[in-house]
Amino acid sequence: MGQKPIPLNYSAATPFDRKRQEQFARFYSDHYPPAWGYLRRMLVDSDDAYDTLTHSFELALERFEEYLAAPPDVARYWFFGIVRNSASYFLRKRAKDRMRVVPQPRATATPEEIALANEEQELVARALAALPQKYREVAVLRFQDFSYAEIAQMLSLTVAAVESRMRRAIVKLEPFYEEFKAGHRA
């Protein structure tokens, strides 16, 4: 999926001159793909992921001076912290909402849902959704080519804890892999 532009209101943030707008535009283009991939897998529904990503970029815009002032090793993970916190908030809110209201099935599929109808992608989505959140989060980040050390820093864990969660995720994903292999033998 190409980047779906997020409308940002620079006037709502602290005064942004042309230079800051260009810096934020670079920040946006660098951080959109990994954040979108993370949210798409963590929240499953693309509309929910887009809404959460929009909220995350709005927060980043309001606090962009913090990003610019941070040391490079901290700045790299600064936005991920915002995205992760936004996703956690959304998941908690959704859990509360589900207790109150029975969700109604959607009348029509979104273009993203139609694209995901591919059997392999559907199996991957089901497999990741079946993982407990702490394993899913590590697996999604690892599949996006983050190192164990990077994931540990992002999630405030030890490298050993990240490796352990990844091993447990792999064990839980094995039945889905067997299903995938069985479907390709036929």
Characteristics:
Arc Repressor Mutant, subunit A; 9 helices; Rna Polymerase Sigma Factor, Chain: A; 76% helix; globular; 0% strand; 186 residues; mainly alpha
Q: Could you characterize the architecture of this molecule?
A:
There is one protein chain. It contains nine helices and no strands. The chain is an all-alpha fold and 186 residues long. It folds into two domains: 13-108, Orthogonal Bundle (Rna Polymerase Sigma Factor, Chain: A); 118-186, Arc Repressor Mutant, subunit A, CATH 1.10.10. The mean pLDDT is 80.
List the helices and strands and how they pair.
Blueprint: H1 18-43, H2 46-62, H3 64-69, H4 72-100, H5 111-115, H6 119-130, H7 133-143, H8 148-155, H9 159-185
Shape: globular
Give the amount of beta strand, in percent.
under 5%
The description of the largest β-sheet is: none
Element order: H for helix, E for strand:
HHHHHHHHH
Number of domains: 2
What is the structural class? mainly alpha
Low-confidence stretches: none
- Which CATH first-tier class of the largest domain would you pick? Mainly Alpha
| Gyration radius over CA | 18 Å
- Could you report the average pLDDT, rounded to the nearest whole number? 80
In the CATH hierarchy, the architecture of the largest domain is: Orthogonal Bundle
Portion in helices: over 70%
Q: Write down how many β-strands occur, each being a DSSP E stretch of 2 or more residues.
A: 0
Termini, distance in Å? 30 Å
